[in-house]
Amino acid sequence: MLREDYETKFTTLNQPFEIGIPNKNGRLRLREIDIKSLKTEQLYPHRQVIRFNSTFVEVMDSWEFIRGRATGLALPMWAALFFAIFMFLFAIYSLYFKQVYWSIAIISCLTVALCYLVYTNYRMAKYDLFGYTHYPIRFNRKTQKVYAFSPQQQKIIELNWRDLRFSAVREGRYDIELRASLVNADNIVEEEIILPYISFDNNDFIDQNLAFFKAYMQGDDLKSIDAAIPEFFDVYNRKETFKESFERVYMSNDVLNELAMQTRPAKKDISGVSMMAVIWSLTILVRRLGIFFSKIPQWPTHIEQECQIDSNDPYDSTGKQRHLAPLVFTSAEKCILFIGWLLGTSIFIAFLAGLAYLSWNYR
User: Fold this and answer.
1) Residue 8 confidence class, pLDDT cut points 50, 70, 90
2) What integer pLDDT is reported at residue 177 of this predicted model?
3) The predicted structure's pLDDT at residue 6
4) pTM: predicted TM-score of the whole model, two decimal places
5) How much of the chain is helix, strand and coil, in % rounded to 5?
6) Of 88, 156, 157, 186, which has fewest CB within 10 angstroms of its CB?
7) What are the Cα distances from residue 166, in Å, to 65, 159, 178, 189, 299?
8) Would you say 44 and 216 are in contact if contact means Cβ atoms under 8 Å apart?
9) Three-state secondary structure of 239-287
10) 80: which DSSP letter?
């Protein structure tokens, strides 16, 4: 994720590279990670690797964990706005025959304002709903370059690995992100990539995640690096399946087990996940909606040429099936999830019914 991608102010772009000082959007850079002294004995790529070979490793970006959120916010707003616009147009039509022209002028201005709100919501959701199915980041160990999609600018950012400064940034109350920043001579962040793994208040995992990229870009032991990758989420030139969407959304909600581990955990946080069952079940739907309307990202020809894979590359992951054990729920776990979903849905419907009742009685 680069610059003002998705127009969410997630980056620290064009702001000072400062430690311990929250920026205007609440992002706190906890510490800078010294890449030179970073140890690479323990590698933590997590489950974000798309492709791996002797030339490059391709991973997801941090938008993976909040995919569908912008769409989920925009759709209800669009529904309400289009309904209001329809009612205003009907009012204009009725007033026209009554020749109440001053009312027509006022309602017309309000209709234009509502149309502008529709447009602003479109700007918020367009990179999620009508953008790319995913936004990959590619690390080329031979050219020592890092490539990443910049959806808002509709271009690819190319950065030199050795020019990047790495830091752990707190996003929200507990989430910690790993960021790669290009900082100029005035200590201002010119470009920034938010790397794929988000840790739940665990700095060791952040260091080990960066250690994976350092080992790949600066080391030679590709066998050990390959062995550290638990699975390939190979969505290169294809869209993820519904099953994959379900597992990715579930992983981002089971923060104590699925998100915290790069192997399939022995236990699940069913009670915690069931409390949010309504939200993450809706997240699956809006994620699928975004993937349906989005296009598959295509790297430019010159980057594909720089990332040419040797025909006899022993580490080429293309076509390899490396997956974790299937995500399976027992009958009791399914029952708990269903009860959580049912309770959440009931509360939501009761809330809407209450609003309707109040609006009807106090109209």
Assistant:
1) very low
2) 86
3) 41
4) 0.83
5) 45, 15, 35
6) 186
7) 20, 13, 7, 11, 25
8) no
9) CCCHHHHHHHHHHHHCCCCCCCCCCCCCCCCHHHHHHCHHHHHHHHHHH
10) H
Structure tokens at 226: 């390959």
Q: What is the pLDDT of residues 322-335, one digit of tens each?
A: 888 788 777 877 78
Per the listing, tokens 């690797």 go with 49
What is d(CA 62, CA 176) in angstroms, rounded to the nearest whole number?
A: 11
Within 13 Å and on the Cβ side, how many CA atoms surround 283?
A: 20
Structure tokens belonging to residue 331: 């009958």
Entry field: residues in the chain: 363
Residue ranges with strand state E in 81-141: 137-140
182, 185, 187, 190 alpha-carbon torsion, rounded to 10°: -30
SS3 (DSSP) at 90 = helix
Dihedral sign for Cα atoms in the order 205, 187, 15, 64: negative
Of the candidates 59, 19, 74, which has an alpha carbon nearest to the alpha carbon of residue 210?
Answer: 59
What would the two tokens of residue 236 be? 């290169």
Q: Which of 197, 310, 319 is nearest to 255 (CA)?
A: 197
Angle between helix 277-293 and 69-98 (nearest 10): 80
E strands within 295-342? Answer: none
Q: Which residues does residue 180 pair with via DSSP β-bridges, in sequence order?
A: 166, 193
Distance CA 236, CA 239 (A): 8
Whose CA is closest to 87, among 114, 105, 122? 114
Q: HSE (CB half, 13 Å, CA atoms) of 73?
A: 14
Beta bridge partners of 199: 176
Residue 331 backbone phi and psi in degrees, to 5: -60, -40
What sign results for the dihedral spanned by CA atoms 194, 157, 148, 312? negative
For 15, 59, 62, 241, the CA distances from 34, given in Å and listed in that order, are: 20, 22, 21, 38
